[in-house]
Amino acid sequence: MKKLQHYFMVLLAGALGACSSMSVTDPIAEALPADFNVATYLELHPELHMVQIKDYAADYNSQLKASVPDSVYKKSKSDDELLYTADTTKMIAIYTHPLLGGHSAADWTNLFVLKPDTAETDIAKRDSLAIVKRDKAVNSAINELKSTFNLIGVADDISVLLQTPIDEFAVSQQFLVFGKSHGWAYRRCVGAEEASIPRDSLPIVKIQSNKAASYSEFVEDTNLYCSDAAGVVRLIQ
Amino acid sequence: MMFNKKISAFGLTSAILLSAATAFAADNSEVVTQQKSLLEKLDSLNAAVLGLKINGTAKAGVLSSFSSSDNYAEEGPTQENQAFTDVNLRFTARPSSETMIDVQLRLHKDWQNSYDENNNPIIGHWFSYDGTILDKHVNFNLGYMRVGYTPLTIFTPQTEILQEPEIFSEKRREALEKRNLDTTSRRLLQGLNIEYNSRKLGAVDNVAAQLTGARLRNTAKKVDQVFFDFDFSDRYLLGARAGVEAYGSNLNVNFVNVFDRKQSRRSRAIELGDTVYYEKNTVFSVDANLDSKKLLPTLPVSFGVNGEFAMSKWEADYDFRSSVKKASYNATQGVDKDGNVFVYLKPVMTNNTSFTNEDLANEDGKSFYANLFVKGDISDVDFNVSAGYLKTDSKFWSELASSPVYEGRSVITNSNALYRNPADSALLSVYGASSLENLYFNVYNSTTLQATNLMSTNASNVLSEKNASDVDRTESQYLYSRLNNNYKNGHFYRNGYTGNIDKKLEVNPLALLDPSVSLALPFGLATPNRKGVTAKADVNWADKVFFNARFNMLTESVAVGVDPLTNAAVNEDNKYTEIAAGLGVDIGALVNLDRQILVQGSFSQAKENAYLKRSATRIVGGVTADIWGPISLLAGFQQYEKKFDNGLFLSTESGIDDTKMGIALSVTKASERLVMGGLRVKLAPLSYLSVQYGLLTNDLDYMYSITMGAEDTPVAAGANKLSISKNVIMADVTVNF
Predict the structure, then answer these.
(1) Of B5-19, B514-528, B664-678, which gets the smallest average pLDDT?
(2) For residue B16, is pLDDT > 50?
(3) Mean pLDDT: which of A218-232, B500-514, B524-538 is highest?
(4) Which of A36, B103, B290, B523 could form a disulfide with B91 if both were Cys (CB 3.0 to 4.6 A apart)?
């Protein structure tokens, strides 16, 4: 824990340093590729945007919980969730928004499609099982929506959530802490790079797909990657 | 009577101190001193006697005050009675002729509260071990002591009333004594004081050195006050002085350092959001006194100059516990829409509670005064005339020379009165009753401690059946019964004097603004931000005719605003003018009767020409006469008027939210009068019966406005006059032994 704290202090110091000067001696700024751009990186990895929104919503709700008596919180939470789940249009919009649910419209409709188990021979049982399974899937999707992308007491959740201020420093540092070593593309491919070797065909993918037993055994990806128009991650040479 | 004065132990080390002491205090109590001197002679005869000796006074008396005022509420109490027996015991033990143990105890029986009194505790108010040792080269005091250095280092500013008749001065001395104070300019301290005097050393008459260490009570109560007179927070004093004396002149250097005990001073941890201030005050001074007396002994007059130059340093800092939000990043596991796990950095805010010390102020200042004097004795006319100049920076601060013993502003008699207009009671609680009442009267009660007189600031001490966090917290139904009849007696005073030494941050601004403390120099010569001339003359013709005169013209530079163009501070001079003259004639001595018939009177006026435009006028008159055999007549008259032409603004606030009541007051004029007269009968040697009557009147003209509720809605405003008159009857029997 102590080490972790120490690390965060270093990051914090880096953050302050980054604000105050862009001097080349700044170790963190130096470690980022020269053409690194936070906006592009976020575009390529909307999940980084999504987790910040998710955390914001959770933080908002917990602050609300701490500031009012328990009974008041419980009441407004149940009232709010009732309104939330009644508004299907809103739920679909959140579910399918690339920065929120991140799913496609087809995913939503697919939730309601019965998927009977073809191996089951008893028709009645097969149908009832399929209904149970479908309801479970729908419920879990709705539960996840209302517990993650829902601001208690706020009617227009989407617009507020989309205005969540994004901590760009956290995003750029994520590339150094995790993205780079795991072969995340940090920019779009240009020119000849569009035809460069896809990362999937490199041996590092195979190595990394097996979970390392310990931190020291983890093999870092030392290459840099770009993403082509189709979203294929390719090596920058 | 009690004698806290230690004649032998406190040799005043320099003539300047002596002159200062006479300037500010000794004159006032000439009569008292005379009266005492006989007893002191007896005392000193006994002083050589080894072993244990018990002296003291016993006084049994009553005080009834009948008050009337149109401002009183219909059913309010108008009478207050005190009946008491007060016995002061002074134990002195001399193991040898060189040292002495001095313990003084007070037993106070309050007959008005005797019904609920179980046992009556003895109050010990003086414990000291004093001596003159090493072939009389070293004097020391351990325990209680009174120490004075110079007017800019260790000094007590006293209220000076010229030709104050004995009926008043005796009352004032009594009120001071209840607070363990006296009329000298020395400070009451507790600690160790060592003084070395070489005496004749070659060409030098004396080389003196003095060291003083004391612990000072801190006046601010940041923590629980669980017993009536006990506090953890205190400060320390380290003082040192050294001087040389030759040819009747002397030169001394003085150093005083007062500082707060840090951190350990707190009896509990600082709460979040709370702040504790610490102060440190050091003063270094050089004083000199040149006197022609020894060089020109044949002349009937001596002349010379005395003066002091001081440099002060005042530092203040504070501790506080605060919660600071700190941002950091946590590496956190995230899951994308397809269920893939990744790591991202999550910004987290943590609350860091930290304990911080920060500087508040660091100020240096200088002060200087010099007086030319001529004194002598020509054909029975003893005179002392001096004039001088003083200049003190606005940032000069010498804590131990500043706090006056008189602060006034309490209500002494009839404090239980109820008023029709809430502005009247607010005025009395902030501004106080008349200064004449505060100067000359005091009430001493001993009462069983219970909830209403036990003070507490900490919520943990509030007996409540509900949680401290509840808004509608009420007192517990057991509040009174739980603390009543615990058989502990508390001693309570209503007294206008205090021995507290205020820190700069804790100085009550009203002590500076009330002219009855002193208009021009409330903190004596150490008053910051003054420059100008002072002059005085004291003449005594063969103890038959006494004359005193005072004249001060001082200027204070007051910041009145900021120049809108240059942003520079704009200062305006506030000029103080003080004049006073007094005359006393002992007709008995003048016409060669064998008795004293002393008639006294004085007039004084003080004014300022800017700021609050205050002015104060005092007229004093009195007679002290031996009428026949054992019977003497004492009478006195005093009229005092304070004017605040620009108003003295005061305000109070009580209650919260809907019950909030704010009262703003502006006092414009205070007219006070005290007429007293009485007989003193000598029953036996050192035993007296005294019967006195006094009429106190106090008129206060003021403007007020009252607001109610959270929105401060004005409900009443206007000009008002508070007129109170009090008939006070006192009778007592005093036995000195």
Answers:
(1) B5-19
(2) no
(3) B524-538
(4) B103
Which strand (E) or helix (H) includes residue A90? Answer: helix A88-96
Average pLDDT of B397-416? 90
Whose CA is closest to B366, among B388, B395, B400, B403?
A: B395
The gap between the terminal CA atoms of chain B, to the nearest Å, is 9
**Which of A28-42, B27-41, B111-125, B212-226 has maximum average pLDDT?**
A28-42
The single residue listed with the structure tokens 């006293």 is B158
**B337 to A174: CB separation less than 8 angstroms, yes or no:** no
Q: How far is A84 from chain B (nearest CA, A)?
A: 21
pLDDT band at B233 (very low <50, low <70, confident <90, very high): low
Contact B342 A12 (CB under 8 A): no
Nearest C-alpha of chain B: how many angstroms from A178? 6
Q: Alpha-carbon distance B590 to B596, whole Å?
A: 9
Which residues in chain A have Cβ-Cβ distances shorter than 8 Å to B337? Answer: 47, 50, 101-103
Q: A48 vs B337: CB contact, 8 Å cut-off?
A: no
Closest CA to B162 of B27, B305, B349, B334: B27
Closest CA to B434 of B128, B728, B186, B114: B728
Alpha carbon B633 to its chain's center: 30
Residues B232-243: b if buried by 16+ CB within 10 A, e if exposed: ebebebebbbbb
Q: What residue of A is the nearest CA neighbor of B329?
A: A8
Ordered DSSP codes for B613-682: -EEEEEEEEEEEEEEETTEEEEEEEEEEEEEEEEEEEEEEEES-GGG-EEEEEEEEEEEEEEEEEEEEEE
Q: What is the mean pLDDT of residues B40-45?
A: 59
User: What span, in angstroms and rounded, lies between the C-alpha atoms of B688 and B694?
Assistant: 19
Chain B CB contacts of A15 under 8 Å are 327
Provide the whole-model pTM. Answer: 0.72
- Cβ contact, residue pair A47, B336, below 8 Å: yes
**Three-class SS state of B305:** strand
Contact B345/A11, CB-based, under 8 Å?
yes
Question: A141 at the B interface (CB within 8 A)?
Answer: no
Residue whose pair of structure tokens reads 């500031």 in the numeric block: A67
Burial of A230 (0-12, 13-18, 19+ CB in 10 A): exposed
Chain B residues with CB-CB distance to A50 below 8 A: 336-337
Predicted local confidence at residue B59, as pLDDT: 95
pLDDT of residue A26: 56
Calculate how close chain A gets to B419, using CA atoms only, in Å: 44
A126 touches chain B (CB under 8 A): no
Nearest CB to A170; choose among B329, B336, B337: B329
Q: What is the ipTM of this complex?
A: 0.79
| Other C-beta atoms lying within 10 Å of the C-beta of residue B655 | 12
The answer to whether B332 contacts chain A (CB < 8 Å) is: yes
Residue B381 has a pLDDT of 94
Helix (H, G, I), strand (E, B) or coil at A88: helix
Q: Between A8, A50, A102, which is nearest B328 by CB?
A: A8
**Chain A residues within an 8 Å CB radius of B342:** 47, 178, 182
What is the pLDDT averaged over residues B98-114? 90
Which helix (H) or strand (E) segment holds residue A66: the answer is: helix A46-67
Mean pLDDT value of segment B559-571: 83
Chain A residues in contact with B332 (beta carbon < 8 A): 51
Give the mean model confidence (pLDDT) for residues B187-192. Answer: 94
The pLDDT of A17-46, averaged and rounded, is 70
CB distance B55 to B731 below 8 Å: no
CA dist B648 and B613 (Å) reads 10
Work out the minimum CA distance from B661 to partner chain A, whole angstroms.
30
Tell how many helices (H) and how many strands (E) occur in chain B: 9, 24
* Nearest-10 crossing angle of helices A46-67, A70-86: 140
